[in-house]
Structures are given as structure tokens and as C-alpha cells.
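User: Hey, my collaborator sent me this sequence without any context and asked if I could get a structure. I don't really work with proteins. Can you help?
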Amino acid sequence: MSGILCFRNIGQLVQADASTQPGIRLRKNCAMLVQDGRVHKILKDSEIKSSKSYNRVIDCQGRAMVPGFVDCHTHLIYAGERKDEMVERMRGTTYLEILESGGGILNTVKATNRATEKELFDTAHKRMKRMMALGTTAFEIKSGYGLNLKCEMKMLTVGKKLRTTLKVPVTLTYLGAHTVPTGEDREEYLEEIIENLPRFRELADGVDIFCEKDVFTAADLRRLFLQAKLLGFDLRAHVEEFSHQGGCTEAAKLGALSCDHLEHATPMDIHAMHVAGTTAVLMPGVTLFLGGEKHPLVHSMLDAGVTLALATDCNPGSSPTYNMQTVLTLASSMYRLTPEQALAAGTYGSAKALGAEKDFGGLLPKQHADFNLLKTNDYLDLFYYFGENFVDATFIAGKKFKAPKDPATA
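Assistant: No problem. I've predicted the 3D structure and written it out in C-alpha cell form, which is a compact way to encode the shape of the chain:
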């Protein structure tokens, strides 16, 4: 048993159960063996051999262990803040009105273009470490605050450095079609993005587009995705967030791994996602922060057999949160998901949205040993005592992550 880590005296172990929508499986009074950074075996605590049989034995003291959270939709590489816009919205201005007046995403674009690669790395590194301390063990990171070739490549280069430095799974997505730069023609800008797609193949795993009224159309989405598929990119889509534009069904038909936001998705869209096996990524933090009242048809998605995923959408404009624990609580409260459904969506479901459910998100044998040891013996406390941080320690590939002492605000 040389080289095997033994985590014993686990009071409650939560694993993914892909056979139930997906759901979770609870095991009590057990132990987990980790070898080469992956889950080797789950067994009863009484079956543990002498401590000499293992490289190291870690006593979990009867606490609960859950899979690490997978944040499958973030924009965490950026410069600047937009607190003034938050105040504007509280006074009645809508998110789209701010964007139409030259603010919103475009303000972050200006700041991000001005920032150096080192500045972007330093601030994003700080954010990611805080997110890891709160239990996130795998990330998706989008570009999209450059809106020009140089800055978009700069952002994705930073993303690759973050993946190497922090040694966590990081999926990178090229979101050149986030909005149309000031003074440019939409069709000409989209054509420029499509022409430059090959230059991003070594920087990004996937391609995304913001399909929304007065931004990009479902036809634009189709043009971009057809070219992206030819180059081997995974497909993800911001769709049906503030209005219904038909992007969800189009993206699903083209084989998108995920359709994200979906507040205005229809039963036809849900059917398309079910048929295609596309994951629905939901972000209740956006609804909370923007003061929205429209919720996705979450239970219609569940009834149709669509896999749900949850994410922070961490960004400076519509969801400046680092905390997947908050997202799980909001999903349970706002969408009336059970804690089991919400936890499955924030782990296994989110991993599936990245096409990585075989590698992480479930604490299943042969998966990455990425998990959270909680401060409690019952994972339900994550939902019951809302607003608390219940992650005592985060483990990446079986190794404890050294968490920062102070919250990151940059």
C-alpha cells in the first residue's frame, strides 16, 4: 500500500450518483484511499488496516466530506470594478440600459485593455485562491473583456498561467463575442472573430457567445459555432438571459456542452437540450445581484432529464461573488431545489458542463481526489445555516490547499 493516503473516520461521505439525474450517494463511517492524486477505493472505516500499511493516515474526526465544487462559468480575469453601476441599478436603471449607454461590459473592457498581463494575473490569482479556500476545486474561465485580438490573447495567456501555477483543473473559453466594441459594425466584428479563431486553438478549450437582444443573434451564434466545431473547440453559450432570442435551441442542435443563464428558455429549448445532452448552467447569484424576478424553468428541466449545473458567473458587473456555497444556498431557496439536487448540480453537474465528469466532480474511484472537509458532520448544514463558511479544508489531488487568511477584494 506504499504511496497511498488514507482518509479515515469520515462521518459522512458524499459521492455523485449519476444514475439519478444526477444525484448524490451518502456513505457513513467510512474511509477513502487516495493514490497518485486520485480516489483509489472507498471502504468501511472498520476495514482500515494498520497505519503502517499506508503512506499517511488522516483522521477526519467524524466530519462530512463532499466533492470539491466545480465553478463552470466565470469571468474572473478582469481589471477594475463597477460599484457605481450597482448603485445605478438600485436607482432603477437596468443592466441592458447601462450597456446601451456605453457602460457595463464596455467599462471592464477599457480597464482590462489598460492592465498589464502581470496585473491581470496577480488579481485573478488572488481571486482564485479565495475561491479555492471556499471550496472550489475546478474552474472555467472566459475571456471577453478584451474585444480585440491582443487583449483576448492576453487574458487567455493569463488563464494558462493560472492553471499551471495553482495546479487545478482550469477550462479556458474564448468569448470574443461578448459584445460589440464601441463604434464597430456587428457583422464585421463577428467576421473578424471567425477569421481569428485558429489563432486561439492553443489558448482556449472552447468558444462562447453572448446571444442577446441588440448584442449577437442566433444566426451569429450558428455562424460562429459551425466554424468553431470545425476547429475542434467545445461550444458554450450565454443564451436566453434577458430575453428569448432562440440561441439555446440553436446551440443545443450544434452540440453545445452547455447553455448558460436560461431565464427565458422555453419548453422547446428544454427539449432541445435534453435531446442533445446539453447541460443547463444556472447562476442564481446573477438574479440576486441584478434584482431580477425571472427564474429559469428549473423543474421543467429536471422533469425533462436535463442535467443541471450551478456556477458563480464571477464577474465585476452582474455577480461579483467567489463563493459556490452561496450559489448552492441560493439555488436551493430560489429554485426550490433540494440540497441533494443543488449539491449534485454544483459538483458533478458542473463537471459535466465542462465535459469532465469522468475526471472530477463526484469523488468516484479513479477521479481526482478533489474534495472539501467540512466543519460539520452533516452536509445539510451548508444549506441550513446560510451565510456561513462550512469548508474547513480544501484538498486538491489529495493534498491540503493552504488557504489565504484574508478575503480577496481585488
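In plain terms: The chain has two domains: 4-67+363-400, 69-353. You can pass these C-alpha cells on to your collaborator as they are.
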